[in-house]
Fold this protein.
Amino acid sequence: MYLRNALPLSSPHVPSFPVVPPKRIHPIAKELINLTPPEERAILVGAPLKRSNDRRAVDEHLEELGRLADTAGARVVGTLTQSLDRPDASTYIGRGKVEELKAMMTEREATVVIFDDELTPAQGKNLEGELGKRVIDRAELILDIFALRARSAEAKMQVELAQLEYSLPRLRNLWTHLEKFRGGIGVRGPGETQLETDRRLVGLRITALRRRLQEVERSRVEQRKTRKKAFRVSLVGYTNAGKSSILKALAGGEVFVEDRLFATLDPLTRDVTLSGKDGGQASILLTDTVGFIRKLPHDLVASFRATLEEVREADLLLHVIDASNPTWEEHRLVVDAVLADLRVHDKRTLHVFNKTDRLDAAHAQALGERMQNLLPNSVLVSAVAPGGLESLRAALITALRANRPVMRLRVPASDGKLLAEIHRDSEVAEVASDPETGDSLLSVRADDAARRRWEPLAIS
Ligand SMILES: Nc1nc2c(ncn2[C@@H]2O[C@H](COP(=O)(O)OP(=O)(O)OP(=O)(O)O)[C@@H](O)[C@H]2O)c(=O)[nH]1
Ligand SMILES: [Mg+2]
């Protein structure tokens, strides 16, 4: 994949819309047409502020940016860093660095520059003017990857919406080559007219997408009403932490796992039956969600409504952390910050330190001891090592039982409606009937609201 959605330097078109018809090929043309897109050769630029923490982690951040570029199909041919007191208003990095970048681009035949930091539309435009090549920032790269990886109709619409919202303030960029045609007051040049047309079209498309996404959301709300009231658990965490691998290991079946960023975009829910050491069984609904990353474009998070709804409705969050990644602590803070943005930071959360098979024994033990003090509610696991998820299974059973203690109910045999309600709104562990009265005797696990409703039927 090459960076399809990055705005081209000189060809004025809006990403995804409007569709440009293919060029007609002359019928007697003989030469072969090269259909493989040119390989993108990228130079990465990291320019942290001197007073920020980012300065210390600039190498890790560029490495991650490199993985993002790789996921988008670009080859990294160079990196450049500069610590800044403050960003230059017109080019972000300093003048000297722009020259250095220019020389490096020629030498390495780079086709695109990717900044780790967010560029203003003006900085992007100025840099493109100076360098003569496309310049994108991290947010744009992430949007591109999401566009590449979106599978469901909903995810595609969400990504397109986020891309359009991102491009709207940047549209002017595309038309500057026509600015010289612009006349004085009352004389509108073609550049301005075209820009207005583009803005209006993009605005219309945004409205249409929003409306369709609202419809999808409404139908999901209806569907959810019919869902069983099982104990709901959502996997959340930094991208590539191993969320899908955990779902796959616990639930079995087809789950997409890949050592690239943002393998999962759409939430996926599976029924998981957990067997306790005491022989008892417990069942939960486990949902895998989109991963987070530092500097995730805000519109994009907000647009992933399906993930948000899953996380909001969960009884418990499993915050999955890749313990083998040297920057896991920063990742954990990023995830906490996104959860806070989504206003779900006060959910009950279990921290799951994954990939412990990659740690040596001493390291794993030290981590375990540290976590006992810091996050007593955490488990160390491996989604791939045999038996590596036992501690998580046990913790889930404990959480489920604490959240939904068994309640015993007596229901008159004649009350079919109530029996149906209990089966719908709880997990029924056992059913018997009273030989004398014919009443049903049930052992159920239900949430607080249902337990309160059925209190009058409770027996010890
Ligand atoms: N060694 C090791 N590798 C793991 C473990 N868990 C996951 N992986 C690998 O880590 C990579 C990412 O795993 P995924 O399950 O796709 O991660 P994810 O959190 O779902 O990632 P996104 O969907 O991209 O956000 C894959 O190559 C997995 O095989 C583990 O416990 N140990
Ligand atoms: Mg995944």
